[in-house]
């Protein structure tokens, strides 16, 4: 595993297609506790509960789920990880992203972390990747 998931030793990850690198770490002292994603000079923050909640959703689904990553201002494809990360039907009742304007791309950045943690199997195709719980 690359990194321990702390600010000083973040997880070093790549998007599912392997085209972009980024880091993530837990910030348990934040209010609410956050998962911090740094992509170049951009910082995105997601509820820390996203790790367990997304894994639980994938396990309950039992099959492959498309990632469907999209920016906040774009509507996500239905029945994708991205759509679930914004849905009023998820455990939060809405967005896992914490910073308005930077709440999207849940489907791009969370699945590789879950793969790194050994919780999911993730496809690594150039496009249209899917994920499922292991």
Structure characterization notes:
By secondary structure, the chain is an alpha+beta fold. The protein has one domain (11-133). Helices cover 20% and strands 24% of the residues. It is built from three helices and seven strands, in the order E-E-E-E-H-E-H-H-E-E. It has helices spanning 50-61, 81-84, 106-116, and strands at 11-14, 21-27, 34-39, 42-47, 65-66, 120-122, 130-133. The strands form two sheets. Strands 1-2-3-4 form a four-stranded antiparallel beta sheet, with helices on one face. A hairpin with a 2-residue loop joins strand 3 and strand 4. The mean pLDDT is 96.
The termini sit apart by 17 Å
Q: What gross morphology would you assign? A: globular
Low-confidence sequence ranges = none
Helical content stands at 10-25%
Report the strand count.
7
- Radius of gyration, CA atoms, in whole angstroms: 13 Å
Count, helices? 3
Topology:
Elements: E1 11-14, E2 21-27, E3 34-39, E4 42-47, H1 50-61, E5 65-66, H2 81-84, H3 106-116, E6 120-122, E7 130-133
Antiparallel strand pairs: 1-2, 2-3, 3-4, 5-7, 6-7
Summarize the structure.
The chain is α+β, with helices and mostly antiparallel strands and 134 residues long. The protein has helices spanning 50-61, 81-84, 106-116; strands at residues 11-14, 21-27, 34-39, 42-47, 65-66, 120-122, 130-133.
